[in-house]
């Protein structure tokens, strides 16, 4: 059984349970599904499979946290504001997204009122591979299920003075200090939001260094489809900017197994993305 088949089986077990409880409780709130994994691990493919599978029975929409990146113009302004922070030079890390737009999207999905939801689209091949917003797509509301994928979903910022003081990446003046602070906005809005009922899917690399190969494969596909993008050296430098986040947050995420508030499926993947381990943790 491959990764998508296992994820679909997970959804077929927990989504009907949620819908039954919602029907009996008289509520209308949607179920959120968070899909997390390193770049190139298969998050987008998995998200599309979830949406396609569930849409036969439910009102479903999917999105990526990448869809909410700042426009190229705003990213340049943001990078200039934090010119001394090399981690915030270009898209990618917490803080480089349009938080207002993301917040509005989540709130509109959660309220469940009839209408249309505008979800931004982002083209990573534009601006010589630096990327830019390419438009919006409309989704009908209300939804039964909203699926959101992203490489840092479930990463929890370090908050206590002891944790911060004990980690060299968070010493005064370090580039990760601002990123760690930015991450709190995402946690409070998404996986740490007590208003959201959610399932989690974690795609776990058995070797985190696999992300370099996965991300390069991803960029090669972008070259084929769009005719432009980053070269291999640019991809390495791109992933290097993410590495401090993996050092700080990735291990605790896969160990906790609690990305979803109700249940979390963690799939261990090898370099070829074959499933090498399966953990299904039900919290409720």
TrEMBL record:
Q: InterPro entries per the record?
A: P-loop_NTPase
Protein name, please? Answer: Kinase
Species name for this entry? Zygosaccharomyces mellis
In the record, what lineage is assigned to the organism producing the protein? Eukaryota, Fungi, Dikarya, Ascomycota, Saccharomycotina
């Amino acid at each position: 059984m491959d990764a998508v088949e296992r994820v679909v089986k997970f959804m077929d077990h927990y989504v009907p349970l949620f819908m039954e409880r919602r029907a009996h409780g008289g509520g209308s709130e949607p179920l959120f599904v968070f899909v997390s994994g390193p770049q190139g691990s298969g998050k987008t493919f998995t998200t599309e499979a979830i949406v396609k599978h569930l849409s036969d029975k439910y009102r479903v929409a999917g999105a990526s946290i990448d869809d909410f990146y700042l426009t190229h113009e705003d990213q340049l302004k943001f990078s200039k504001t934090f010119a001394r922070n090399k981690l915030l030079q270009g898209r990618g890390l917490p803080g480089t997204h349009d938080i207002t737009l993301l917040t509005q999207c989540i709130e509109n999905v959660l309220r469940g009122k009839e209408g249309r939801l505008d979800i931004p689209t982002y083209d990573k091949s534009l601006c010589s591979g630096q990327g830019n917003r390419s438009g919006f797509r409309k989704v009908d509301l209300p939804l039964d299920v909203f699926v959101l994928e992203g490489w840092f979903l479930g990463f929890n910022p370090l908050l206590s003075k002891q944790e911060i003081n004990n980690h060299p990446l968070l010493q005064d003046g370090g580039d990760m200090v601002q990123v760690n602070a930015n991450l709190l906005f995402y946690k409070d809005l998404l996986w740490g939001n007590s208003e959201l009922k959610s399932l989690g899917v974690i795609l776990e690399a058995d070797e985190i260094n696999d992300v370099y190969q996965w991300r390069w494969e991803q960029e090669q596909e972008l070259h084929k489809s769009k005719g432009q993008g980053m070269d291999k050296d640019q991809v390495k430098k791109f992933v290097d900017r993410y590495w401090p986040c993996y050092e700080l947050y990735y291990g605790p995420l896969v160990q906790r197994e609690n990305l979803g508030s109700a249940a979390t499926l963690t799939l261990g993947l090898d370099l070829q993305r074959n499933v090498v381990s399966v953990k299904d943790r039900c919290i409720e």
